[in-house]
Design a protein that fits this description.
By secondary structure, the protein is mostly helical. The chain has 9 helices and no strands. The radius of gyration is 23 Å and the shape is globular.
Length: about 230
Amino acid sequence: MIKKLFAAVLLVFMAVMFYQLYSNITEKSELSGVARGYAERGASELGTQNIVTSIVVTYRGLDTLGEVSVLFIAATGVAVLLRRRKEDEEYAAPSKRQSSEILQTGTKLLTPIIVMFGVYIFINGHLSPGGGFQGGAVIASAVLLLFLSDVNYKINHGLFNIIESFSGAFYVLIGILGLLLFGANNFLDNRILPLGEFGMLLSAGAIPVIYSLVGLKVGTELASIIDNMKKD
């Protein structure tokens, strides 16, 4: 009885709180000063058709660097917490059941398509919705599918580490070039490369390169997290 009464009181409290929030919402008829500046100057300054890309990659490039760093720290933490000693692996019971033939066949057909779709997402991030984080997550889902279809599948950690390291290093290098060429407030300035023709694939300067580096880095780090969770 007490639990039901407590649940009822909690529901009433939540209803009142959300009603207050809903009743105080006012529709904005125009953009704020900062948002207006991004919307008005983004296309002409950076050559990006997707204004969100302009904000994420260039105007707030340092924040994006922080997000990539957080993911790297998370992947490192998972690897440390879920690491297994060699003696544990030697005495681990081989009680793994093989997946169905349908899943194995479907994986062989879908994995290349999923990877290509992930690459498409981050290469076209300056033209349409998408970007490095989304494309990297799609690529990591292909690795997850490989793990589900084959219990003995192992990723090439050496190759993954090389891709992850070089992607992060070149990402920071592009940011430093922006600082050197365009001043102290221009980290990840995409104008280090020609802006090209607006709306075309080869446009927006270095943004497609930046998003490709982010996509590869995110994809390899997420795949490593999945691999470490699979081992335990």
